[in-house]
Design brief:
The chain is mostly helical. It is built from 7 helices and no strands. The radius of gyration is 27 Å and the shape is extended.
Amino acid sequence: MMEGDDHDDGLVGATSSASSSNVQRAVQYWLDKSTIHIVPRWIVFVMLLAVLALRIYLVQGYFIIAYGLGIFLLNNFIAFLSPLEDPSESGPSLPTTDREGKEFRPFARRLPEFKFWLACARGTMIAIIMTFFAFFDVPVFWPILLMYFGVLFCMTMKRQLLHMWKHKYIPISFGKTKHKNAGVEHGQFGGGAAGNKGR
């Protein structure tokens, strides 16, 4: 009788692990499909933030969760703005002269855009779930938290902007510059065999 119970437990464990791996595979499939849809992804994130803000406003509590989420989002934003290799630690890896700057090198982030979005969306969903548990509602005076977060945000962004200014990098890359008439020949025959069409 004991052997049959062990067999049933093993069967239940195998079934639950198979179903959880199927769920993980489905979630990963939809995440992979969403990588090219940048604007809709960020709209979903803003909607999640709006749901959290509405929940906190209606309950008039869980301000410490909002503060913790704000610190988490600020930390991810700084990682998103930072280069993959810090120029102050690894030496001058970014172009320092005009000649070095002619070669196109896109800005390599420490935290890529998709991972930034995914971390922000997951953090916001976890914060929304936490607002349904009363033991996370720690009584705090929210104006002090808001003021402290504002000061922290200003100081952190000032430090990041000074770092960007010192090492001369911009965390936005629009791709390689395209010249107006690139690839168009203005010769006697209009470029290649194009001038031979009428002959």
